[in-house]
Amino acid sequence: MGEVDAQPLLYPPLLKGGFQGIVDSHCHLDDLRFEGALPSLLHRAGVAGLDHIIVPCSKPDRWGCVSPCETMGVALHLAYAIHPWYCEGINPETYHRLACYLEHAVAVGECGLDLGARGGDLAEQVTLLRNQLILADHFHLPVILHAHKALDMLWGEVRNFPALRGVVHSFSGSFQQAKQWVDHGFYLGVGARVTYANQRRFHAMIAAMPASALLLESDAPDQSPQHWRGKNNEPALIVETIRALAALRNVAGQALVDQCRKNSQELFKI
Ligand SMILES: [Zn+2]
What we know:
The protein has eight helices and nine strands.
């Protein structure tokens, strides 16, 4: 997820991927860049073959701006959390509001750690993460994790909650790191990075992971696939990620869609 972009939404050509039952496990429909555009976006998502989208509402001042619903044949499922980019100004009232939203959520997310330039004070990030892991444990909800340059540190925190399950969104670690998360029952979110050239190590790592560990994600409006880079992403473009990932793994696209759907249903109980 990223900063608000004042550019008007530019739509890519309507994509009919020939797939059915695609689950987008990570899409920021609450992002201001999508304001007023949801009916059109969801129509385009439906045409592309999507029927479920998980929406991680990760900014406290945007909680509640998207509701769980089914529209244009696409069901929206909500998750809530405080992203590590927004740890400033969090107080007990924020956690109380979060707990109220979590009563009707499919997951706690996205939360995590960010050791890049955009992450806040590290001590604050860790406190924020720990409090949210406690909430996830309390509500028996899976977690949607953000890890930027922080995979091992994140694992050091998550391992303190042995019952916790979840997905590491936009996973970009090494083979060994991926294996560690997968061996402990976590899923790996795979997005448009599989469509980028010059990502050989990443491609090899993702190709080697068991199909039972993968979730498809758009991360829209960020992380556009190769041909749409630099412009706002949207859920319908996940079709390109599916094609690229299926080619990498040498499987049929629909078989990949079906497996990832099953994985999403298991994790989010949708
Ligand atoms: Zn995200």
